[in-house]
Amino acid sequence: MTDRSASSKGSSAEADETPPDEELRGGGRPWHHMPDGTFRNPKGCASRGQGRMKHAGPFFLEMLKMGARKVDVPEGHVVPRAEAVRDLVAHEKGKDDFLTWLGHASFLIRIGGLTVLTDPYLTTFAGPAGLGPRRYVKSGVPISALPKIDLLVVSHNHYDHLDERALARLPGKDRMTVVVPLKLGRFFRERGFPNVIELDWHERHEIRGVSVTALPVVHWSRRSGFDTNRTLWAGFALKSDTHHLFFGGDSGYGPIFSEIGEAYGPFDTALLGIGAYEPRAMMKASHATPEEAVQMGRDLKAKRIVGMHWGTVLLTVEPPFEPPERFRKAADAQGYGPEDSWIMRIGETRLLGGAWPSNA
After folding, report:
1. What are the structural domains, with CATH classification, of the chain?
2. Which residue of 6, 119, 226, 330 has the smallest Cβ count within 10 Å?
3. How far, in whole angstroms, is CA 158 from its chain's centroid?
4. pTM for the complete prediction?
């Protein structure tokens, strides 16, 4: 397939050298590939249709009210932008791996000398043409202050993870490599990104010594009313000589994470969604609770877990600043100390603990 074999300088795409077991991959046509060309969740994991319908009406009525709901943002939740930019620039000048939270599932990651941007939701609305949920805090760093992006990684096509207005403003489209799940590449090529790699679950792409492996997660995809599950969704493992990081995108909990931990772990750091989980009957096949996210970390054999997908935009009905409290409590119960269970401020940059070689 052209998208998966597309090349960029110093890069390649291939199936991962660690063969997944039958539950991960399946025999013949992979389990997650449906005969009609759509995709489904990993075997043994929740499907989105289970238990949704009787809750759908009340949920969407509540969502309509959220547009007018004011969110009281706690002091210290957001780093002042000027300070955030100064700190990011200072870290860019060094050679250490680092992580900057831009809000929701958007991160800048320095790993192995590459600068990576994940799930760029960086403007106001999580929807088309000024519609949809509205951010109640700005992106941690303005788009104009972002560094040169070597690698853009996008987990799926939902508007709160794939922001077309932000893409239009990203500089250096012709130089960056874009890695996306199956059938999502066309979206980027049509918007001026020439170096696009599509990956199925368990396929790998390598760029300048950093491997990117697409991995199964429990979610779904839709960009319009007519394309449900027509493009794949995925998490990603980013691995260099200095760090091994799991980026979860969006996901509910399921046995697949133990299987990933066995096949691909351990991970130094796992970025895991901890928000947008209520009501559970609606969200269990899409988003994990904070407690489930911590269990994901254990299943993945992650040494450090970082809570994301909270504190940015109202998507569901739980109190917006409940997730970090529950995450901290669950992490403590699972043996993760404060140094290994991060709740970051939007705009904050932290070192990941690995330095990349001076000759990279």
Report:
1. 2-14+21-67+77-353 (3.60.15.10)
2. 226
3. 11
4. 0.90
